[in-house]
Amino acid sequence: MDEESDFAMRPSLFENAIKKSHYTDFSKHRNAIWYWICLVFRAKLSHLNLKALPIVEERLPHLYFKHQSTLLTSYETLDPHEIQIKEKEIKHLIAKLNGIVIKPNAVFSFWKNIGHTKSLFLDVTNFASQKIKGTTPAVCQVSNLLYWIALHSPLEILERHRHDYDLYPDDSRHRPFGTGATCIYNLYDLKFENKTDSIFQIFMTYQNGILRGELRSLTLPILKYEVFEERHVIQKNRFNEYIRHNTIYRKTENTKTQKIKIEYITENHALMVYEPPEDNEIIQIKTLEMGDIAL
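Structure (tokenized):
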């Protein structure tokens, strides 16, 4: 067996944690074949009416919001071959997204603009790629950044799916837990719509291990956004597994009128694949059955 094959077959910390876990988000109803058939059919049907948005190289005049993320967190240990694969995939993805223009009433769809290219999924290096065909670590990193950017804009989220696992402690995060978006081809998409009178544009770059994204607009921004979490709790079930929950809210401030609006965004429930810090309060769950999700 060559060295590259050994890298691809080597189990990750994530995969080992899932193998020994009683918790699974793919339990009970999600294991039913009809559930998956309906899910795929719904995804394909919603995909038919969408169009890939145009790409324009010239940047719109105003920066609406920007953010960046690192290729690897302090808790990730990837082999050089795996790092090379992830970098290659990220560059491929941002080439499909750079300069996308979202006009009024237009809908952005991650997969409609990316498309399904065989080159993106040739190399599988971790649990997600091996067990769930149609996604990679690079896809998750790019979709996470896009969702975070969209949350700091008037773009309306039409479809977003949360991650089912909490992989890393908070000291490696620069945004609240549960503000990412998972995308799986033909199943889970990230979509948002421009219901304003302005025009928006997405730009992403990758250099020296840093993925940068920005949202630009035709008009000067007058809204400021703050995304925060509430009702954070960690629960421990009878199998000594930790389930993490929180609720995400957004505060919007109009800089002209000084009016402030706080709105509910989403809630998250995820299996932690690491031991929670000692300063977190743990709630014991006594009624959780095998395969159930604590809500």
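The CA atoms of residues 142 and 220 lie 26 Å apart. The chain has one domain: 3-284.
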